[in-house]
TrEMBL record, chains A, B:
Pathway(s) the chain acts in: Amino-acid biosynthesis; L-isoleucine biosynthesis; L-isoleucine from 2-oxobutanoate: step 4/4; Amino-acid biosynthesis; L-valine biosynthesis; L-valine from pyruvate: step 4/4; Amino-acid biosynthesis; L-leucine biosynthesis; L-leucine from 3-methyl-2-oxobutanoate: step 4/4
Family affiliation: Belongs to the class-IV pyridoxal-phosphate-dependent aminotransferase family.
Cofactor field: pyridoxal 5'-phosphate
EC number(s) reported in the record: 2.6.1.42
UniProt-listed InterPro entries: Aminotrans_IV (IPR001544), Aminotrans_IV_CS (IPR018300), Aminotransferase-like (IPR036038), B_amino_transII (IPR005786), BCAT-like_C (IPR043132), BCAT-like_N (IPR043131), BCAT_family (IPR033939)
Organism: Clostridium ragsdalei P11
Catalytic activity, reaction form: L-valine + 2-oxoglutarate = 3-methyl-2-oxobutanoate + L-glutamate; L-leucine + 2-oxoglutarate = 4-methyl-2-oxopentanoate + L-glutamate; L-isoleucine + 2-oxoglutarate = (S)-3-methyl-2-oxopentanoate + L-glutamate
Protein name: Branched-chain-amino-acid aminotransferase
Amino acid sequence: MDFLTKKIPDNELKLMYKDYDSLGFGMIYTDYMFTMKWTKEKGWEKGELKKYEPMSFDPASVVIQYSQEVFEGMKAYYSEDGRVLLFRPFDNAKRMYKSAERLCMTPVPEDVFVEAVKELVKIDKRWLPKEKGTSLYIRPTLMGTGVALGVHPSPEYNFCIFITAVGAYFSSGFNTVSLYVEDKLVRAVVGGVGDAKTGGNYAASLLAGLKAEKEGFSQVLWLDAKENKYIEEAGSMNIFFVYGNKLVTPKLTGSILPGITRDSVIKLAAHLGYEVEERNISIDEVVKGIKDKEITEMFGTGTAAVIAPVGGLCYKGETVYAGDNKVGKITEELYNKLVNIQYGEDEDIFGWVETVDTI
Amino acid sequence: MDFLTKKIPDNELKLMYKDYDSLGFGMIYTDYMFTMKWTKEKGWEKGELKKYEPMSFDPASVVIQYSQEVFEGMKAYYSEDGRVLLFRPFDNAKRMYKSAERLCMTPVPEDVFVEAVKELVKIDKRWLPKEKGTSLYIRPTLMGTGVALGVHPSPEYNFCIFITAVGAYFSSGFNTVSLYVEDKLVRAVVGGVGDAKTGGNYAASLLAGLKAEKEGFSQVLWLDAKENKYIEEAGSMNIFFVYGNKLVTPKLTGSILPGITRDSVIKLAAHLGYEVEERNISIDEVVKGIKDKEITEMFGTGTAAVIAPVGGLCYKGETVYAGDNKVGKITEELYNKLVNIQYGEDEDIFGWVETVDTI
Ligand SMILES: Cc1ncc(COP(=O)(O)O)c(C=O)c1O
Ligand SMILES: Cc1ncc(COP(=O)(O)O)c(C=O)c1O
């Protein structure tokens, strides 16, 4: 790759972590990281693969003071036939491009993004756990590293990528989670930055997230900020409601993160013959639908869990359960089909899978 | 101060910057900074005064990935009788405490905040320019420096303070600025983090800020996010409208930063015999008020400018000017009175001024 300055010698590569069960999420960092710098004068400089290490920032830099930062979350999978696979990496590249534009940052060219991810995954591939469900979680991050105390876009950017080895999300079985419907605090609003993957959205979500956890729920389910009425998305997943053979998911209004798993489920479900509706859906409609047993299944979609079956929703103190709080059939079908595509076991009918290398 | 570990020897102190005119804002950094660390195990450790230098962050730290950061902006002034003064520092400490709580961060005890500011200002006092209008701009910052990739509050915090020497805001005369009323993009919404001084609010504001600048305006004037109708605040100032002898300013709904200058103007104006109303005020009411000449003056309030006379507002392509785009009498009176208190020239009737040291 001609955008890289230096390669790490092979003998510096550590052996990978072996204990799949204790992997968890975001606990085990690989050896290397990728960094690439942009300045007004020079544009994008050559990228570098180097040891994972702390980075040095001016305390007055725009990423620290004004949170000018966007990121992505994506995974690399080990396929039975020995390949290392990425899932829709160009869609992550595209989303980060858009996020960067919204935050007035110099975007990373999409092909550079994907190539950089591939180069880093290659050099860190020994860390890729081989059990199904495990993966490498890849975190590309673009930061405003220059100083502009007067609230302006940074004159300098750093694009870095690091990787953590992650365990199977459903290591204790494919079970339902329940969500806490937050009706006062909000995550984002139309006209804001809710559809960009930027740190500030997550900082803003912490308080409601802690509240949900204290009440015993796994994530928040956010409502729209204007009317506190329409369902938006969960803490780190988009949300689907299954009405018999029809899937309903909130339409992208501008305040919701356009999840790549969400898009994949929409396409896959349509391909499997299910009807899919993207529309506004109010919390009252959902609660009624659950009570009337019209909503038969619910699930969240996101890179971390792929598909997380949702059993209950707690709204204004009352928790209602769909499908007897059991994993639904369509949920399970979609999960299996999607995971099989991601792990290279089923045919890649949508052209979503990229091979990085072989192990 | 027993919360500090080490003092910088006096002979290490550089001489201060002499060229007041080219000071600008955020250009000239002083020699030293203050840092203080909090961990779950040890709580707040002793703070440290040290050379201003880049800090080291894990790329996966919560401040970088999820923008868990809050900050303050405040000034130190040189008084004619040779003292170094702070203006309402305990109010900055209180606001940062609240901001931190909203962002699920360990707040800095208010007395520690103020003492740390004082210690740093003392050691950097040779940088304090002596011309009226100039000052030290102080930037206390609290950051989530620990790693928690799973979107949780940081297990570690760093409280740092740094200082820049700043020139007079109105070095080319006390003139009006014009604001661009943004009617699509929004800064914050009720239920969000608009009333916290957190980086994400500023990242979200960059795009509209650039747009306003390109159109030739100095800042954005934000409308509420629910109805795009009620005036909130400007890019880095709160806003006041003068109707004859009455001042009207948007009430604090939860999405507006509760400015310390705003509060000072409210108290000072009331003391001077003006009527002050804090209430919802729509952009239509303001445009009509300007056209009908009921609104006689407008001004913004913030630490940077103290009071910035506002001449025109551009709304939906039309710019309307109040008071013939000249600086209003009440605006000027309030500016002079407030600045005189800040610089220790007028009696400190409200108990707002803290003496740090003498030069
Ligand atoms: C807020 C939020 N919504 C939705 C998603 C799902 O997006 P994706 O499917 O691209 O991972 C994520 C990220 O994982 C998220 O953080
Ligand atoms: C968004 C915003 N509003 C208002 C203000 C004014 O606040 P203060 O008077 O405390 O400086 C500021 C900060 O300067 C600000 O950034």
